[in-house]
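ugh ok fine here u go
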Amino acid sequence: MGAAGAGRRTGGTQLTPILSLDALGASLAAAYDGLIAEEVPERLGALLRQIEASEAPGSGATRATRPGHDATAPAAGTACRLALLVGDVPGAGEAGALLARAGLDTVRCRDPQDGLDVLRLHGGEVALVLIGLPTERAGTLDGAGLARAVATLWPTIHLVVAQPPHAAARLPDAHLPPQAVPLDREPDLLAFAEHAAHNPRPPVA
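structure:
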């Protein structure tokens, strides 16, 4: 992306990356978080456009981990092994059991900020993020903001949002990224999670 330290030139012609995808995602997330704190939508829009133009193919969290789980990011072509459940997800226990059946380790995140912190450290391992909406926290990142951050900074991750049952409490679709799949429209969470584990989304939508 042209950032200092993003790579080095070898032999005068070849560009060799020296930052991992997780480190790059963490840097972008930090910038996104700063924009959220400053509440400057114009600058946020400029950042999103810059990221889209530059993309090239390539803590309150608790984790239920299987024995022998490798915490390093998987190599290209291998399955991702983490699923994040963020905020108040209806039927979270059942959802976690289905994700485990799909072969995913479940990381429970108390709120969207915790989810963002986990993504900064392990974004390359995450196959799916399930966010309970609206999940608002005064002065911090909300559920819709986390959904937009996932879609922008980790576009290969499958994104699911669980809206509240009452229509009056639901967030308008316009507040969410287009790749966010409503849980009530994807009733077979097990099949969706199995697909997410082995088929990351394309880097550029």
